[in-house]
Amino acid sequence: MKDKKIIKIYLYTRYERLWHWLQALMIISLIITGLEIHGTYKLFGFQTAVNIHNFVGLTWLILFAFFVFWLFTTGEWKQYIPTTKKLFSVILYYSWGIFQGKPHPVQKAKGAKHNPLQRLAYLGISAMLLPAQMVTGLLYYLYNDIPQVLPLSALAVIHTLIALFLLNFLIVHLYMTTTGHSLFSHIAGMITGWEEIYETTEIADWETQATKKK
Amino acid sequence: MKQRYLPKVFMALIVISSLLFSFQSAFASTPKIEDEALGRTLARQAVKDNKRWSTIDHSKIDALNKDFKTGEEITKACISCHSEAATQFHKTIHWTWLASGDKKDIRYGKAGYSVNNFCISGNAMEDKGCLSCHTSWNKKGVEGDVNCLKCHNDSGFNFNEALGDIKAFLEDGDPDTNEIATDLQQEVKEAVSQVTFPTRKNCGDCHFKGGGGDGVKHGDLDTSLTKPNRMLDVHMGTDGKNFTCTRCHTTVDHHIAGRIYTNPAVETRKSLIEDDLAPKITCVSCHSDEPHKNDSKMNDHTNVVSCQACHIPEYARVNPTMMWWDWTKAGKMKNGKPYIEKGPFGKPVYKSIKGEFKWEKNVKPEYFWSNGSQTSTTINDVIDPAKVVKVSHPVGDKNDPESRIFPFKIHRGKQPYDKVNKKLLAPMLSGEKGYWETFDMNKAIEHGNKTLGIPYSGEFDYVETTYAFPITHMVAPKENALNCNQCHIRKNSRLANITGLYMPGRDKSSLMDTIGWLSVFGALAGVLLHGIGRFFTRNGKEE
Question: What is the pTM of this model?
């Protein structure tokens, strides 16, 4: 293990990185202003918080459409296909192996950016939590202008609950970035696009099958 | 490589921002009017022609060029031209003190069975103390002639006093005093010709001083509105639009628009665009029901929140208003004599003839659903003395499309009720047999109830009561309107008692919040423990 050389591969394209950080910025500002609107604390003042929240929310909604377009035109969506293969070894690694210095059971590679646990988590976030948040948010925003699908209280409660789940994700996600070769190597990868991996890593066939060019 | 990419980024930004722009305007419900709030534009339009013009100079009218001896003679002179004025006026509540409408048999009104928690009852106009505000000459009530000058003269001249003096001087026969009488008559003649549409002072002489003094009753109506600045009232401000009362309280046949006991001022709010002949009594009349700037979230509030709720942040902003009147304390003497004790604001906090008072300034209103109607407890209504009796209270419900959340002054107090019949009582206050002379409440009640023909068991006690006044005057300039945080806040929301609707910032689901925060703090605790674990095992590394 020790003699394995660390090399860098170009894993995240420019658009991907831009989208990632833009979305991070938007989600964080939405959480901050959203919790103020919810009455958790006072920061900008209710009116300013609402204005920021509405503007960023709508911006996110539009930019998300671009992301979905990118996802399907590039075939990147296949990176999110869930699998149970090695899922438990990944879980086992994070709950035990990591403390023993064992190697990560799944290494990153061009065709396989996410380990099975990440695939599952990101799919759940992108395909369920985020759309649900966008739909409830939009219905909330348009509450006075369109027929009322759900009472405001229901919309608000769901919207708040999902926001807190996303905050939960944010915390875990941030922490997980520190589990690379060094504390900041994953973050550096997301900034430069170049991710550090071991030179001799073998990528199993099943991992790249979906994205392999025929 | 990098430079080739830049134009693409630039293009993308342009596309995104133009998309955002079109998205925003797609949801705009009204066309843009030069960036000014629609309600402002419409209202400006409605009051553009601010000056009323007249074709008459009353000082040149022969009928008024006379030496008047009595008020009745003056009225006769008015009617010699305005032949139908008195006939019209006799039908209005300003004259009858009785509410008209379909509930006539209940006899709502000062001259009827309605009571309040101030001087309690007008005792069918038998309590002459109340009649100083009746629009008749010499407190004669409906038996007398209409005093047109009460509302239509802005000389500020005291006609009652002058005419009383003239009468006395003429009767005593002395040539010297006769001369004084002639001088006085000349003064009266000059004052009489100063005929006007009702000014704020005309209306205010009674409506600012209801309940026996400045600011006693309303809270949003007191003598500070005779010459207000626009900070106190943006419409009536002499440095602003300088509205008179009748600018909004429009009239038909001497009937003046406004709420009358249980009847709302208007059944539905209509703007001038929808109905240009409707009374201009509501904010919507001139400002429309989407008064704020385009896309303003505030316009989404107007089907739930009244304009007054946000635009009158506090009432009694210049003069104090009475908040408490306790009749149980009345009747104490100092050296065997009734006395008055003054407190903060230089206002009486005790009067032997009336009891204990509390005054407040810059008062935050209380908020209730209101459709413009109010309940009015009469002397015939059975009350529950175990509870605080709501003598007058707004009528409204969140499911009623005409109801809005509306600000109120709630005047609290204690007043007598019949222990056997469980009804409020109407003590006579002024006059020989009145409480103010006898200080005997039992006798005052006996006498007072008799004037109304309502039986009294002979046993009374006191009950706490409330009386609600809608707060609708003293509209502040827009920069002083409430900000969102006054209501959209978890603690001490101004609308804390308005239930049955979800208000962002004020409301939450405790269960869902708990679940959400448990997940957040669970995640925090988890990563913390995991991190500590990695720190101490040094990720399993040897060196």
Answer: 0.87
